[in-house]
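User: Teach me something about this protein's shape.
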Amino acid sequence: MERPYRQHLSESAELITTYEECRAGFLSLALERNRRATPLVAEARALKSAVSRVSKPAGLLTMTQLQSALLTAGGLSDKAVNHLLIEDKAKAIRELIEMFLEPAGSAFTEELVYRFLLTRGDTLGGSMRNVGGALAQQKWTNALLASLSVLCIPYTWLHARSRVWLEADSEDTDIAPHLRGVHWLSNGEPRCLLYNHTVSFVRRNVDMILLHTTPEGFGEDSKGLSLVKIFQNL
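Assistant: First, the predicted structure itself:
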């Protein structure tokens, strides 16, 4: 009897990503990086315009509304700023002015903007490390939902934020970015596909897991996905 996967794969070479697919992936990442960078460039322009009102770096000390941007230019991430006291933030801004802006002379505005973008760019780079997987997940999800719809197979999907299972709606045209799981029936048997769950049994995060269960067949505790009920159903 022919194995089911032979309907889709005839040889191992078909699992190799082609050059065209690699190119398309890299271009998608580049476009996404530029899309996410657009508001950062706009912030930098706004910062430059605001700073142009002062003639010397010391004048920035009175511009309390720019404190967040000045801290960013000082090399502090948003996460780091949340752990600092008021006096530590003030000290960081003074050191930025004394050590980097004042030595730049009349070009202190450009120096400030460049340092602001340097920190913002580092933050963007960190977030981009997860974008490739997210885009792949969305592409796979769209293909799965399209197949279910074409075959007239009803399904429910797990909303990532609310953790609520929702009925599929024909008007839902862009749910992939907000989806964390899909449930449907295959020949009367339940199937539950989940993304990015920490499985307490192995103490590891699983990128994608297909389970023979309904949404009611498992639960989540503080340690992650519980497989006790799942194993009872196997």
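Now, about its shape. Confidence is low (pLDDT under 50) at residues 221-234. The two ends are 24 Å apart (CA to CA). If you'd like, I can walk through any region in more detail.
User: That's plenty for now, thanks!
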